[in-house]
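Q: What changes when NAP is included in the input?
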Amino acid sequence: MRKYNVAVVGVGAVGCAMLRCLKQRNFPINKLSVFARSPRDIKVDLDTYHVEAISSENFEDIDIALFAGTEGEKGASALYARKFIEKGAVVVDNGSDFRLKEDVPLIIPEVNKDKISAHKGLIANPNCTTIQAVVALGGIYKNFGLEKVILTSLQATSGAGKEAEVSLWEETKEIVDKNKGVNYDQLDKRIDSGPIVFSHQIAFNVIPQIGSLQEENYTTEEWKVVREAHKIFGDSSIKITATCVRVPVFTSHSEAIYFRTQKKVTLSSLEEILKATPGVKYSPNHFPLPLDTEGKDEVFVGRLRKDPYEENSFWLWCVCDNLRKGAALNAVQIIENLIPHP
Ligand SMILES: NC(=O)c1ccc[n+]([C@@H]2O[C@H](COP(=O)([O-])OP(=O)(O)OC[C@H]3O[C@@H](n4cnc5c(N)ncnc54)[C@H](OP(=O)(O)O)[C@@H]3O)[C@@H](O)[C@H]2O)c1
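A: The predicted holo structure follows.
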């Protein structure tokens, strides 16, 4: 079996999850190169990886590059993705810089892997919030169509990177430490130094804004869900609207999703579809929780129920590890689909 020279760019929350997924899934690697802004050795589980400082000179002979750097004009993919491609690599990018470009396939293998082969060197991984919603709704869309989707996400701090994940811990510790010995009704629930990463304190709080405010007062994160889901389904007629909320959870995003199908459907036929949907673990009698799904591969779905007033309209609850299926695992599944299967 052929083995590949693989690069991982960025070793934050997603990059480390990628290194873990590549190892756990036994991706056939000949040489692994790991890049970030600064050189050092890092530990992921029991393995030590040497991180090289990225520069235009050190990406010869790379077959596949998984990008998990920050977004925007100073981010890794804006600066280096094209250079990797010019040297012959296929790039899978986790950020939002290229997701909506017409010549860049936006892929969730369970839903649209047939689009992978159209790539011109660059393939985009969708946003974590989009991935779990589209996987959860994938079988329902295929069988019954979707007229409307209303989604509320409760997003973990690790969705904003490693530093954001740590900030939940630091803020929580500050509040716990300063209230030692204090009676409950005299607790001081605010941090003194101001929020560490988010726009507001995240410990013991929720923040109903992820990203910046855009058209119609929706945020960048909310528009990502709409536009990326339209592109992946290849159907912009689905009326999708979202509210994205940051919550004090370390890992795994939760989503309450209301949807109306185009075709007439019963609750029991939806249950059958959910049980058969690739990538979904449906539990009729158990609701998934972020703490239980961390480190797992599936999109966990529960609490399926009818809208008592509207035909063909339902709610479901879904939870998924944002760093795994929401990012790293999806990218690794994409490259598994690029290579011949043994
Ligand atoms: N977190 C999630 O749940 C999630 C889900 C889906 C998609 N994403 C996307 O995945 C990407 C990575 O997110 P993350 O959460 O892992 O971020 P993160 O924890 O902040 O880590 C960012 C990493 O990128 C590296 N980096 C930044 N600019 C770079 C540059 N110009 N050249 C080389 N390396 C650079 C940093 O290097 P240093 O360590 O040297 O500073 C760091 O290792 C982002 O585009 C994000 O939007 C994240």
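Observations recorded in class: The chain is about 30% helix and 25% strand.
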